[in-house]
């Protein structure tokens, strides 16, 4: 009897230890298979969106299902090609105008030093100049260029996965659980893509209205960063500041753009997106930040972009089993487990 009670008492501990081992193994697999698994996951998400859009077009306009899939696929290709061309042209223009940007940077440093002297603030001008000269600006530009090449390579791999998934003769009747996941995730992705495109378009209009250089690349960057919850819109708001400072100095252009972009992201993120998504993925904000850090460590920038839908899928899977239901409640923000 004593032994049976001891086994019952140790059962929760054994379960927790097994979960920790399983989570550690899964994390190692995610990191080790990153180069293949990450494009495959993106392809699966894209197929979810394609099938949802195709079904919606079929129900709304009686469009053939295959035509809806083809339209979604061609739209994805067009947007991707346009974004890559924008980024490539922006990088080329930046490299071509490197000398001009260097002169503007030096003029901006002189302006800051002069303003500091007016307020009787002593700054070592030589130290500041040498420090700025050592900034790895061109290395960052080269890294962005290599990132574009990497994205192109991943896009080709994603396209192959999409084709193979669509060619697979899967059953049309999906289990209720799989159908629920597909509906929720595809709805989230469609809303997020629409909101991000709107934010990118409005950002480009604001930047182009004041003739900001690299406006196209900053708009594409806004579209990408908008997928990162909480942190992404903030980075997208302040990212044009260095370009505007080099182009115009510290004047009304920076203030105007910051005010407009802040109002824009507040309107789109806190009003439109909240209205369209409702409760969203039913994830606690603290959990979202923690999962954002985890997926960024595992899969880098792309992991941060996919953090919310991946965590939502994990939460829905956890909700199906009694053993992992407490973990699903924690992901939903219920930290007081009873």
Offer a quick outline of the entry.
With 338 residues, the chain is mainly α.
What does this structure look like?
This protein is an all-alpha fold and 338 residues long. The protein contains 14 helices and no strands. Helix 7 runs antiparallel to helix 11.
Helix content: over 70%
- The shape is globular
Low-confidence stretches: none
Structural class: mainly alpha
Describe how the helices and strands are arranged:
Layout: H1 2-32, H2 34-61, H3 65-96, H4 98-118, H5 125-133, H6 137-167, H7 176-209, H8 215-225, H9 231-238, H10 240-248, H11 252-277, H12 285-305, H13 307-318, H14 325-331
Helix pairs in contact: 1-2, 2-3, 2-6, 2-7, 3-6, 3-8, 7-8, 7-11, 7-13, 8-9, 9-11, 10-11, 13-14
Provide key terms for this protein.
single chain; 338 residues; mainly alpha; 14 helices; 0% strand
